[in-house]
Write a structure and sequence with these properties.
Layout: E1 2-7, H1 17-29, E2 33-36, H2 44-56, E3 62-67, H3 69-81, E4 85-88, H4 94-97, E5 103-106, E6 113-116, H5 118-127, E7 138-143, H6 151-157, E8 162-166, H7 180-187
Parallel strand pairs: 1-2, 1-3, 3-4, 4-7, 7-8
Antiparallel strand pairs: 5-6
């Protein structure tokens, strides 16, 4: 059985809209694919340890989809595990982006409280894939209307990846449900 690992973004959860849409698509059209969609730890080192542990337990084939900060993690998975990845409005430099969010946080889905610190920004910088060699195995889905991230950073970083860029849209990626079947085909699951 093939496996799809779905990685949610910052302060999100397996109950995010895109995760639910992917789960519904697989249930209806590809019940032969196991979906793993963990509640990721709130802090970077702990989240990566959790993701790596899941990946270490997988056998080929498996693919990964990540949204926002999940796209950052999906890129690292593609680099380290040699799998295909789809990144949706990905965070390219979360250590810069999230520096504005330092302090107490509350995940709106889980209500978990935690404190985001400078140490966490250093962890993100250390975990970043600075010179990715996996870009031929990545598909970038990007909407220019993303109100959280500058889409040009993703276009620059993923310059050799397969790219689908749309005018308009938002950070949630409007119309994601129309891409689920294509994502599965790209991941070769």
């Amino acid at each position: 059985m093939a496996t799809l690992l779905y990685l949610h973004g910052f302060n999100s959860s397996p109950n995010s809209i895109k995760a639910r849409l992917m789960r519904e698509h697989l249930q209806q059209h590809r019940p032969d694919i196991e979906l793993i969609c963990p509640q990721l730890a709130a802090t970077p080192a702990a989240a990566w340890e959790q993701i790596a542990s899941i990946c270490d337990q997988q056998s080929v084939p498996f693919g990964v989809v990540g949204s926002s900060l999940g796209g950052f993690w999906a890129t690292r998975v593609a680099e380290q595990y040699g799998v295909r990845a789809v990144v949706v409005n990905p965070a390219v430099n979360p250590h810069v982006l999230l520096a504005d969010w330092l302090g107490e946080q509350v995940n709106p889905y889980t209500h978990e409280r935690y404190t985001l610190t400078e140490r966490h920004m250093a962890e993100l910088a250390e975990l970043r894939v600075n010179a990715p060699t996996c870009l031929d195995r990545i598909w970038l889905l990007q909407q220019q209307g993303d109100e959280v991230l500058d889409y040009r950073e993703a276009l620059d970083y993923y310059h050799f990846a397969r790219t689908c860029i749309q005018k308009g849209g938002d950070h949630a990626f409007i119309g994601f449900e129309h891409y689920c079947a294509q994502i599965i085909r790209f991941l070769q699951l």
